[in-house]
From TrEMBL:
Originating species: Nitrosomonas europaea (strain ATCC 19718 / CIP 103999 / KCTC 2705 / NBRC 14298)
Name by which UniProt lists this protein: Integral membrane protein, DUF6
Membrane-spanning intervals of the chain: 7-27, 39-56, 68-93, 99-118, 125-142, 154-173, 185-203, 215-234, 246-265, 271-290
Membrane topology according to the record: Multi-pass membrane protein
Keyword Cell membrane among record annotations: yes
Major localisation: membrane
EamA domain segment(s): 11-141, 154-286
Claim: Transmembrane is one of the keywords in the record: yes
Any one cellular-component term (Gene Ontology): plasma membrane
InterPro entries (alphabetical): Diverse_Substrate_Transporter (IPR051258), EamA_dom (IPR000620), EmrE-like (IPR037185)
Short name of any one Pfam family annotated for the protein: EamA
Subcellular location: Cell membrane
Keywords of this entry: Cell membrane, Membrane, Transmembrane, Transmembrane helix
Length: 293
């Protein structure tokens, strides 16, 4: 790929990362307006799914969906569903940067899932990335006075589990070579919408929908359109850029999120948090240099 042709997918990933860096804020506004994260996730991804169904209706053929890789498509939907709901609940109930840093342990989980599901062998660099990621996570999660590093909050749990599910989703998407990008995208959107709906029923928050004002619905519609746009950007970028390089470009989200969290919520990280986060980000950077046999 020439430099000019490579510029567009790189720009797509950078734009997507920048938007994701502030996409958490509308969800917090909806939470303040009386809509729980489970329901806002359900409705936002349902709107994005509706857009996708309209635009990609020609790809919705039973013969193309129910092929030998249909089981993988199902697991893509399931893992993507948890990724979406965990991300939203994490950034609503936790500290934005801590949640995102734990989410960006994804390269660690990607290496492990690739070994299990794709039989990709690790180089020495791969093992170094695992150790660096784990060391950063331990430092980030260490609490004064405790003997073991612990997840400090519900948001931390969501960030960690969401990153694990995100890594699994990416590996499954790479493993599934029998479905087109459009069907995989619809699987991601439908899985998140259904997972959010199940969580909404579990939390009995479906009644929140009757108490919303017009401006909340406008925010929700905007999020739905934005989610679809972001999925297109990231799918395009990751189709043309190797996954281990794409994760490095996506680290730009952390920069944008740090600035946004400071000015929008007055959140800040401790020195220990910054040190652990730097180790995690460095592991992601080094993941671009992993060579697998």
């Amino acid at each position: 790929m020439t430099k000019q042709k490579k510029l567009l997918p790189v720009a797509s990933l950078l734009l997507g990362a920048a938007i994701w860096g502030v996409a958490w804020y509308p969800y917090r506004l909806l939470e303040q307006a009386g809509m729980r994260g489970e329901l806002s996730t359900t409705l936002a991804y349902s709107i994005a799914l509706l857009i996708g169904l309209i635009l990609f209706r020609r790809q919705l053929r039973i013969s193309e969906i129910l092929n030998p890789a249909a089981g993988i498509l199902f697991w893509i939907s399931l893992s993507a569903g948890w990724t979406g709901i965990a991300y939203v609940l994490g950034i609503i109930h936790g500290e934005v940067m801590r949640v995102l840093l734990l989410f960006y342990l994804a390269p660690l989980w990607t290496i492990l899932f690739s070994r299990i599901l794709l039989q990709e062998r690790l180089s020495r660099q791969g093992y170094a990335i695992i150790l660096l990621s784990l060391a950063g996570a331990l430092l980030l999660l260490w609490q004064p006075g405790s003997k073991l590093p612990l997840l400090a909050s519900y948001g931390d749990w969501m960030g960690l589990s969401g990153g694990l599910a995100f890594a699994l989703t990416n590996v499954l998407i790479r493993k599934d070579q029998q479905h087109g990008i459009q069907l995989k995208l619809l699987a991601v959107l439908s899985g998140t919408a259904l997972t959010g709906f199940a969580a909404t029923l579990l939390m009995e928050s479906i009644s929140d929908i009757t108490h919303l004002h017009t401006h909340a619905w406008l925010i929700l519609a905007g999020i739905g359109g934005l989610v679809f746009f972001l999925c297109i950007l990231l799918q395009y970028g990751m189709t043309h850029i190797p996954a281990n390089q794409a994760i490095v470009i996506m680290l730009f989200e952390l920069v944008v999120a740090a600035i946004a969290a400071h000015f929008l919520t007055n959140e800040y990280l401790t020195g220990r948090d910054w040190a652990g986060g730097l180790m995690i980000a460095s592991a992601s950077l080094f993941s671009a240099r992993v060579n697998r046999d």
